[in-house]
Design a protein that fits this description.
Layout: H1 17-29, E1 42-46, E2 49-52, E3 57-60, H2 63-66, H3 75-87, H4 99-111, E4 119-124, H5 127-142, E5 146-150, H6 159-164, E6 181-184, H7 201-215, E7 222-227, E8 230-231, E9 237-238, H8 241-254, E10 257-262, H9 276-281, E11 288-291, E12 302-307, H10 308-311, H11 327-342, H12 345-366, E13 370-376, E14 379-384, H13 395-407, E15 410-411, E16 413-415, E17 421-424, H14 432-451
Helix pairs in contact: 3-11, 4-11, 7-8, 12-14, 13-14
């Protein structure tokens, strides 16, 4: 019954005794740097629900940080992986061709909204690898050494993507970081400079790209501009379409490729198969898409998609790897995409997002600690502040809220440059009853934290 269950905490404390014993073992066996602030040791997961080793049931609004758009343990995906496992686990694609890789590359090339008629795709294992490989492709095609990224960006924890990522807490003691990465300002409209009219915002943020050209690296040395259509770690901030159009124009005028980092926003999360479909509907397409997370329902896989002439400029031997496009992962991904299209999960994302946004906006009127609500489809951020007028971030309240929700059986996660945003990344297979229960827990937790 777990798939349709509601949150239920049966132990007197969290973690429960069995979970605490495993968490204690974790502390002895795993580096402290790999942190976990949640009192949960998972025993099994189905749909949007987790049951821990003590029998507590949690509604998961984190979804493996956006990995589980079709939920835990989707039976058809499980069967697809089992069927592939009966044949073979692994066949390195540089040594033997396996049809799953080819079929998935064909499928993604058919649905990804990248610029060009003829497209190709290849695979890696993680979001960071996808972003780094997208940059490698752009450099190979343009023969240029530099890229532009943005404030608030998160692109990964490899050596190169640590340089791309904005928050340098993710790169502490890891320097010197990779060269050739320059940063412009992302359009965070909620925190526009005081007194700036909104109709001047695009010009203000675009100016920062020209500042990079002037002060850091000339336009003709820039291989790519890398944009998250909706920033994840940065605070769930959608890129305004008028700004995206202006960035596309800069790229076209200067021979720069536009990379959409869809690691977190892809696969129905925002109400489209890819968030950059919204760009396409407005007449803009990226040159390259890097994506991962929900691509294979939790089996490690990521993808890079671009038009053929861009892909085929890459020198032999500079992309690919041992596990990239593993047969089990490709089988999981093909079935995942089939389910997403068949069950209309993009539309479901919009339905969920509408209900969550409406409830969050009602809460915003009641609780002055809520500063902003924003997002696309079922990818929504709610920002907490000490005062709605000053907009001073309230990281302490946000941290308290995360722990209070967990004690009541709801798992939520923080984000944001100032650590004051809660991100909504719940599995899109969550029932209406579970959604309502989660929203009730969330509001009750806000009330309790305000009393603190």
């Amino acid at each position: 019954m777990l798939r349709t269950d509601l949150p239920e905490i049966i132990t007197e404390t969290l973690p429960g005794p069995k979970a605490q014993a495993i968490i204690d073992r974790r502390a002895q066996a795993v580096p402290n740097a790999i942190r976990c602030g949640y009192p949960v040791v998972i025993e099994r997961g189905e749909g949007a629900m987790i049951e821990d080793v003590d029998g507590n049931k949690f509604l998961d609004w984190i979804g493996g940080v956006g990995v589980l758009n079709i939920g835990f343990s989707q039976p058809e995906v499980v069967e697809a992986v089992k069927a592939q496992a009966d044949k073979y686990f692994h066949g390195m694609f540089n040594v033997v061709t396996h049809e799953g890789y080819v079929a998935l590359a064909e499928k993604l090339s058919g649905i990804a909204p990248v610029k060009g008629d003829s497209k190709k795709a290849f695979f890696a294992n993680s979001g960071a690898e996808a972003d780094e490989n997208a940059v490698k492709v752009a450099k190979a095609y343009t023969k240029r050494p530099n890229i532009i990224v943005f404030s608030g960006a998160f692109h990964g924890r490899t050596h190169f993507t640590m340089a791309m990522t904005s928050k340098k807490a993710y790169a502490k003691d890891m320097g010197p970081l990779a060269a050739g990465v320059f940063r412009a300002q992302f359009p965070y409209y909620y925190r526009n400079p005081e007194g700036m009219p909104e109709d001047k915002a695009v010009d203000y943020y675009i100016r920062s790209i020209y500042d990079v050209f002037e002060q850091c690296a000339a336009a003709d040395t820039i291989a790519a501009i890398v944009v998250e259509p909706l920033q994840g770690e940065g605070g769930f901030i959608p890129a305004p379409i008028e700004w995206v159009k202006a960035v596309r124009k800069i790229c076209d005028e200067n021979g720069i490729l536009l990379i959409a980092d869809e690691v977190q926003s892809g696969f129905c999360r925002t109400g489209r198969m890819f968030a950059s479909v919204y760009w396409q509907e407005a007449g803009v397409e990226p040159d390259i898409i890097a994506t991962a997370k929900s691509i294979a329902a939790g089996v490690p896989l990521s993808a890079i998609i671009a038009r053929t002439e861009v892909m085929d400029a890459v020198p032999a031997g500079t992309i690919g790897g041992t596990y990239c496009g593993n047969p089990l992962a490709c089988a999981a991904s093909l079935k995942t995409i089939e389910i997403m299209e068949r069950d209309h999960l993009a539309e479901r994302s919009c339905e969920i997002g509408k209900k969550v946004t409406e409830r969050y906006l009602e809460m915003q009127k009641k609780y002055p600690v809520i500063g902003d609500v924003r997002g696309l489809g079922g990818m929504i951020g709610i920002e907490f502040v000490k005062d709605q007028e000053t907009k001073e971030p309230d990281a302490a309240f946000t941290s308290d809220l995360i722990q209070t929700c967990a004690k009541k059986g709801l798992l939520v996660e923080g984000a944001g440059t100032y650590n004051n945003v809660i991100r909504f990344l719940a599995p899109l297979v969550m029932t209406d009853e579970q959604l309502a229960a989660g929203l009730d827990i969330f509001e009750a937790s806000i009330k309790e934290c305000l009393k603190h």
